[in-house]
Fold each of these.
Amino acid sequence: MEKTNTVLGLGAAILATVFYGSCYVPVRWFEAGDGLYFQWISCVGHLLVGIIGLVILNWPPVHPAGMLGGVFFACGNALTITIMDGIGMAVGSLLWNTVTCITGWAVARYGLFGCDQKIPHNNIMNIIGIIVVCAGGCFFATLKHHPMKVRPVPWEESSERNDSMQKTEPELVSTTKRIIATVLTIPTGALYGNMTTPMCHLVGKIGFDQEIQTYSTFFFSFALGAFTMSSIIFMVYSLYRRNRPFINPELTAPSLLSGLMYGAATSLFFYTNQHLDPIVAYPILAKAPGIVCSIWAVLLFKEIKGRRDILHLMAGICVTLVGIILITVSKI
């Protein structure tokens, strides 16, 4: 039974990796501004997936612990566009996922914040895998981001739009913006790494509905907490902008699609946690999506160019894959 559960967990992890690594692709073609409109609409998509999960799981009750996990996610999600504009989708994702990997693993491995301590079957191999995965992140930190041209906002004059689309030289990103974006990957990764922390001490116990609680039990609560927090963030932002928030209407459908993909990935991530334990699931699903994301960045968006950077990216991916394999085998 354990082997079957492990296989199911790995299958869910693979699907979640594809969704996580692809969820930002729809919005990269459009001007997202400061990203706060995107984060709000994407959390709407996340909530829609949560409602579907609510029906499938026979209407589990809403729990504050699950909502708190969603709050952590929404706060991290609000920073992602700023990061991607500064250092790119691939580099940004790979860096904050490195922090997520370390945070999620440490919480599960050492039983932080009231969580049960999870020790894998092969503890030494698990630790080596974490070190190797983090070493792969060092390769990604050296990559140079080449900004891509995005579709101008629709309220620009047609002449300005044509001029913008005809420009061949992308705008340069200032050093200050790069530094800010790089620093923001730390709190973003820490927030993502603690998404399941508030509910970890409740998993496996009897809930109010007299059912054994799993991570999936809290998914709707998680999505509801994310939507609530993202709405609060957007309201405060709108007040700060004196009721003139940056809203690109062409970003609406792509942001919703991004949220649906992220919601599906998160539901699979919760399912993976049930079968692989967070000490294995977090490192895999924190780093593997960055590989998918980097493939999009190279082949579709051309954010990473040049022989040196491509070789560094390939080396980082290979090292990361070795670490993921070690972490996976440590569970068996």
Amino acid sequence: MPSSVHEALNALFRNRPSLAVDLLCDVFDIDLPSDTLVEVASAGPGAPAPPAWCEPAHGVIVELQHTVSEEDRQGWARRSAALWLRLRRPVLVLVLAPDAGVCDWAAQPVVTSLPGYVLHPLVVGPDQVAPISDPAQAAECLELAVLSVLSHGGDEAVAGTFLEALAKTEESHGARYYEYAYRLASTDVRRVLEETMSSATWPVYSPFAREHFTRGRATGLSEGKARAVLAVLRARGVSITDEALTAITSCADQEQLDEWAHRAATALTIDELFV
């Protein structure tokens, strides 16, 4: 089951398919055709092939990386190879790394156990994404505004600019992009968004803001509790079935997640979690 982060990232690039191509052109001077197939970390062997009428000349996989994880880097290489097998075309891996330290680590070549196969990820970090401080500019391209928040949202001025831009858009449209930014952001940036939105000094306060602020906080809390349940189970060596994983990660009931967390501390099997 795709995570909320995966869904948000996928929606962001689906709303503007040219975003990945534009980033590759602007940051790395790589000129790709407009028919380039863009996928968000979903190029596994079970993914469907492109429709018959679509014969892209290139493929791009987009990844979001907040932390250092060698396992994740190996995953980039696997997904790149899988997409190449589907398309039989060149494939690039574009990594969004809002943290400068993670960005430097992510840009290193990924050496695999397959002889001769070394992946060279293309990494976009805070130095490559300009902070947007003009609400009008942010409103013109909300996708870039989201990337600006991911990289520079620790600055209250950048977060405030983003929220001002959302307040100038249609309510449902602004709500979606706030949710994208909140789901994709680091914990520190989420905190700044929450504080800025709840501040009485924020000059632009729309009806969607308080409602979505509450929803976003609840979503983040549920995700954190679900991760805690899974972490306890894995630490205790309890095997987690696909059905159990889906049930835990999709649960939005705070009390249920708390109950599962208590049971996870003593459960010997996954079935004992759901009794």
